[in-house]
Design a protein that fits this description.
Strand order of the largest sheet: 2-6-3-5-4-7
Structural class: alpha+beta
Shape: globular
Order of helices and strands: HHEEEEEEHEHEHEEHE
Number of domains: 3
Largest sheet: 6 strands, mixed, barrel
Distance between the termini: 45 Å
CATH architecture of the largest domain: Beta Barrel
CATH superfamily of the largest domain: RlpA-like domain
Helix content: 25-40%
CATH topology of the largest domain: Barwin-like endoglucanases
CATH class of the largest domain: Mainly Beta
Strand content: 25-35%
Number of helices: 6
Number of strands: 11
Radius of gyration: 30 Å
Length: about 280
């Protein structure tokens, strides 16, 4: 049933209102303009003015609403769409929350408990709590997910969807798919990222995830001598192994974090280390 606020209902209401005016002022005998005084002139002109009002109101209310174009731009690091100022990124997505990966019931980076049946996802840098529209480029299916976790920490992937998200996009059986994401609001409309998030949850450069305490100590000391602040974050891998994520810095701009990542990559280029940017939380 159409909403009472639907443009079609507005037009019908206006027509009924004008019709009542016509009945109230309809003269019993046609009167030529300019004769019979002011009252008769008003009676003659009212139906004609009402007709013009109906036409104008109907044209305005039945005009189709505007729509947001889907940006087709994207890159490995993400770009900003000039049309909607939305963050857009394209790459490979995977999913987690299967029966045997052990993630169900664990705390996410946001602090909430991970439920694979919820419409959520993990991204390395998008603000926690933000929403993204994700499109599967292989079958054009779309869904809106909320970012509540960090990841994926596998090279070449940009997004980890919950099991429910992967089911909605139709790649639950194949494990990964090429997708395009863009930032949206809670209603699914394109929106820009909140710049305040960079102050609340700064960027960091994750250098490695290590399990050997000796190696962790050696790498931490070397990075502290070259870059200053180094933090260690405890984590558990998909295989159940406990590791320490070795991270450098606290940067309020993406550019500063990228410059630091390049310097770290040069410093450790002979060790097979590939630093990447994520957030403190």
């Amino acid at each position: 049933m159409p909403s009472p606020f639907h443009p079609t209902n507005w037009s019908q209401a206006c027509v009924s209102w004008i019709h009542e005016i016509q009945i109230a002022f309809d003269p019993p005998v046609p009167v030529e303009p300019g004769k019979g005084g002011l009252l008769r002139l008003m009676r003659w002109s009212t139906p004609r003015v009402a007709t013009l009002v109906i036409l104008s109101f109907t044209l305005h209310c039945t005009r189709p609403p505007g729509s947001f174009p889907l940006s087709t731009s994207g890159s490995r690091h993400g770009v900003t769409s000039h049309d909607a100022q939305a963050y857009v990124e394209e790459g490979v997505a995977s999913w987690y929350g299967g029966n045997d990966d052990g993630f169900s019931g664990r705390p996410t980076a946001s602090g909430e408990i991970f439920d694979p049946e919820q419409y959520t996802c993990a991204h390395r840098t998008l603000p926690l709590g933000s929403f993204v529209e994700v499109e599967n480029l292989e079958n054009r299916k779309r869904t809106v997910l909320r970012v509540n976790d960090r990841g994926p920490f596998i090279k070449g992937r940009i997004l980890d969807l919950s099991k429910r998200g992967a089911q909605e996009l139709g790649f639950i059986g194949q494990g990964t798919s090429r997708i395009r994401l863009r930032s949206v609001d809670a209603m699914g409309l394109p929106t820009a990222l909140d710049p305040i998030a960079n102050q609340v949850d700064p960027f960091v450069v994750q250098v490695a995830s290590l399990s050997d305490p000796k190696n962790i100590q050696i790498l931490t000391k070397e990075l502290e001598n070259a870059f200053g602040v180094v933090t260690l974050q405890s984590a558990v891998t998909r295989t159940g192994q406990s590791v320490k994520r070795v991270r450098v810095g606290s940067y309020t701009t993406r550019q500063d974090a990228e410059e630091a990542a390049e310097q770290i990559a040069k410093l450790l280029k002979d060790r097979g280390v590939e630093p990447f940017i994520t957030r403190e939380r």
